[in-house]
Amino acid sequence: MTSATAAHSVVEPTATTRRFAGSLVVLYALITMIPLAWIVLTAFKSPDDAISYPPKVMFKPSLEGFCNLFTTRSRQTPEFIRSLGPPQGLCDSIARDRNMVVAGPSNYVPRFINSLIIAFGSTVLAVALGTLSAYGFSRFRVPLKDDLLFFILSTRMMPPIAVAIPIYLMYRTIGLSDTRLGMILLYTSVNVSLAVWLLKGFIDEIPREYEEAAMIDGYTRFQAFVKVVLPQATTGIAATAIFCLIFAWNEYAFAVLLTSGNAQTAPPFIPIIIGEGGQDWPAVAAGTTLFLVPIVVFTVLLRKHLLRGITFGAVRK
Amino acid sequence: MAEVEINGVSKAFGTTQAVSDLSLTIGDGEFVALLGPTGAGKTTALRLIAGLEQPDTGSIRIDGRDVTRDAPADRDVAFVFQQYSLYPHLTVFENMAFALRAPTRRVPEADIRTKVQEVARLLHIETKLDNKATQLSGGQMQRVAIGRALVRSPSIYLMDEPLSSLDAKLRGELRLELKRIQVDLGATILYVTHDQTEAMTMASRIGVIEGGRLMQIGSPREIYENPINAHVAARLGQPTINLLPAALFGGAPAGAETVGARTEHLAIARGGGDVSATVKRVEHLGDQSHLHLDLAGRPVVTLADPEAGFGAGDVVSLRLNKPLFFDARGWRVAA
């Protein structure tokens, strides 16, 4: 019965194995969640609780971090504050408890909008260019195809930041420094090689008979591409888009170097939020927490395709 | 429907000559089968006619018009692929309507509906129209694939082994249906297959193709009874023709090196004779038996009546009855 037992364990894990594997996954998830939980908890702490030692797990939640994230404040004398009318909203009243008044909005929202425009813009561009190039490489006899593909891949062989100085000089010369367009082009150029390689794999898996059938049925190659190839490549496109978006959304080094007042994205802005007497940790944590939201939403929206992407190739052809 | 004329068409992929100097005319309403083994160039021939490949030399005319350089969409042909033929993201209806919805065709949606339903009825898949293409059985998928082509009325239907992925029973059923539909519609079909039964039962003419060359073309009967060489002779007939040295038998014509003996060319009698063989094995198929003989160290396979009661070890005598003769290079020698 040895063979039967072996076959059983290969085809269908036993309840014990399943439970063991399940607990491992849960344990791993818990470990990776700890820093995330720390950030979210810190976002709701008061500045004193945030830096207390030993760290507090139980604390009185406060929105001060979020208020400090979105506003700038100025210190005033208690007499001046008393002479003012009632507080202008929640943040003003929190500030007044610390002898401050809200002076105006912070730069977080414009930085966040820059991040959205640059990350989504470069993702759309990289995925569009990647899909078309991958299709070309997959379907046509391109001269020097293998060399070109290797060249495209080789652009990722060094860390992008290695070319930071030449790019900085070039951008300054042609006026792309501190512009959204410049950042979109930069992130696109980094992502497009990944997009070409990922998508070529997916498009290679789509039998070319599908387009050939469409072309015989009266469609042009481009119409066949739109009607037949794109719908079947959605899985690959979604997966590629998520990878590109995560890179562009999180990119820090180029953003620090190439952007300042105008096109600065959220990553270089968040860690330098200064409060009274140094780093304002609850505000930094609040900024980071909100910064995670778009990626989570995007990933959840495309989750269906991602799951199919993981099982890709398991279906009978 | 129209006449399709292929003239001296050749196509090479790198150093591989896929199709060599192929000339073939398919008459209006004719069902021509190209029969050959895998890699013989059958599929390439179809793809050249469809415009999916460009010939290196030669020309292709459809309905008198030279289409050699035309795009596939401009040729007015329909293609049934061996597999991968259905779009998995579309329903059966959408799959069948796909060609009619091509931007260049501008068929009104009401006409599309009528046409698809009509063809679906013809293929007995009218209840499956709302299913996703992936929710069908193999036989139903293949019907839809044929249906995708039938909704159009092209000059010619090109079919690339459309039944080869099906099991034997379904293949038999669809073979009959396809022939019935072809006769009903008066359709012109070029049908590629490696299955001699499909070619023999459906085609009005069979072209035997080997190594990229059209060896012989003619009615199934002609091809079977009058093969021009040993290749063609070996393509048709079940069990495969026995090719034996002519010297083993007397009475071969001058120049004949090989004698080709099908079952009907071999008379078997119990006991030794001028040419004796030993029975090695008997395969019982029910209505008849395959008889595996040993003739001076060479295997010979033929059919025998199960009533004859041959068993392993029996000695039989063989006598030829109007067999086929071939010369040293395999070409036919008149008896």
Automatic annotation (TrEMBL), chain A:
Q: Which UniProt keywords apply?
A: Cell membrane, Membrane, Transmembrane, Transmembrane helix, Transport
Domain of life of the organism encoding this protein: Bacteria
Q: Which Pfam families match?
A: BPD_transp_1 (PF00528)
Q: How does it sit in the membrane?
A: Multi-pass membrane protein
| InterPro entries in UniProt | BP-dep_ABC_trans_perm (IPR050901), MetI-like (IPR000515), MetI-like_sf (IPR035906)
Q: Does the keyword Transcription apply?
A: no
The protein's matches in Gene3D superfamilies, at most eight in alphabetical order, are given as: MetI-like (1.10.3720.10)
Give TM segment ranges: 20-44, 112-136, 148-171, 183-203, 224-249, 281-302
Primary localization: membrane
Report the CDD domains cross-referenced here. Answer: TM_PBP2
> Domain named ABC transmembrane type-1: which ranges?
112-302
Q: Where in the cell is it found?
A: Cell membrane
Q: Which GO terms describe its cellular component?
A: plasma membrane
Spell out the coiled coil positions from the record. Answer: none
* Single biological process term from Gene Ontology: transmembrane transport
Output the SUPFAM superfamilies linked to this UniProt entry. MetI-like (SSF161098)
Q: Which PROSITE patterns match?
A: ABC_TM1
Q: What protein family does this chain belong to?
A: Belongs to the binding-protein-dependent transport system permease family.
Protein name in the entry = Sugar ABC transporter permease
Organism equals: Bradyrhizobium betae
What are the leading ranks of the lineage? Bacteria, Pseudomonadati, Pseudomonadota, Alphaproteobacteria, Hyphomicrobiales
From TrEMBL, chain B:
**Cellular compartments per GO CC:** ATP-binding cassette (ABC) transporter complex, substrate-binding subunit-containing
Q: Which PROSITE patterns match?
A: ABC_TRANSPORTER_1 (PS00211), ABC_TRANSPORTER_2 (PS50893)
**What domain of life?**
Bacteria
**Which family would the database say this protein is a member of?**
Belongs to the ABC transporter superfamily.
**Principal place of residence:** membrane
Subcellular localization, as worded in the UniProt entry = Cell inner membrane
* Membrane topology category: Peripheral membrane protein
Function summary: Involved in beta-(1-->2)glucan export. Transmembrane domains (TMD) form a pore in the inner membrane and the ATP-binding domain (NBD) is responsible for energy generation.
GO process annotations (BP): carbohydrate transport
Which GO molecular function annotations are given, in alphabetical order? ABC-type transporter activity; ATP binding; ATP hydrolysis activity
Protein name as catalogued? ABC transporter ATP-binding protein
Tell me if Repressor is a UniProt keyword of this record. Answer: no
Which Pfam families does the UniProt record give? ABC_tran, TOBE_2
Do the record's keywords include Transport? yes
